[in-house]
Amino acid sequence: MTAHRTAAAAALAGVVPLLLTAVTAGTAQAHGAPTDPVSRVAACGPEGAQRASAACRAAVAANGGSAFDQWDNLRVADVRGRDREVVPDGRLCSAGLEAYRGLDIARADWPATTLKAGARFTLAYRTTIPHEGTFDLYLTKEGYDPAAPLRWADLPAKPFATATDPEVAGGAYRISGRLPAGLTGRHVLYTVWRNSSTPDTYYSCSDVVLAGDKERGGEPVAEQPGSEPSAEPPSDPVTAPTSQPASDPAVEPATSQPPAAPGSAPADEPAGQPAAASADGAGGHTAVLLGGVAAVLALLALGVSAFFRRR
Q1: Of all helices (H) and strands (E), which one includes residue 123?
Q2: Has this prediction a pTM greater than 0.85?
Q3: In this predicted model, what pLDDT tens digit does every residue of 212-230 receive, in sequence order?
Q4: Where in the chain are the domains?
Q5: Helix, strand, or coil (residue 39)
């Protein structure tokens, strides 16, 4: 009987870690996004300082009322460098994901950061789960209209800065480069992070205002008055164009530097995570999984008890 009891206890002890691992894997859906210049999803996320802005409120409304709780999970699987084929025009900021469609609304009052055209700058990309991969940074061309949906034709064919496997320090990657010269006004800094350790590619839009030589960079920009912008994302995206501009800024290799702002502690994650789920679904899934674990453990306990009584 002692041998049977030992075997049953060992079996129960082996099942518990497996069930807890399943719960942990179901809730590990966090990766990263730019925080300086602040991206739309980070600005409007639960920790975003601008989440109460008119643009963020309109984005949540266009999102069907769903907040951007998973601000660091805007990713698409198996793109494999085919960004302009997979992500449709007018849906660049959401990467075509329904859970983030509010980020695509065309407005001229998105929270923005002031930068200086032609100057060196450093992008801080906060990471909650580090991955290996390459960052490509694009800046919209002169003539970009912030009141119109962002299209691939608004971006040059080549990034102005790129970095592969920059180190994580203080919870963020730091990607440095020189901004293209000759640009003024509102623009979008578009960041593409192609993972090599997972099949995922991350996309993000950071709104910036390019100032003249006498103006300081890095200042937050207040909402600008004007005609009431649209609160709806584009509904009929078209195929991404393949045409390229006549001249593109040269790609400048980026360097990694320790970030100033701390972030969450890095955690390991297996490759092959699925594409982003609904922004408000993680809590419900966790509750269901925990309930399932409790039920299975109760059944196992009853079975072991009945087994011992029969013996």
Answers
A1: strand 120-127
A2: no
A3: 644 444 444 444 333 334 4
A4: 1-29+279-311, 30-276
A5: strand
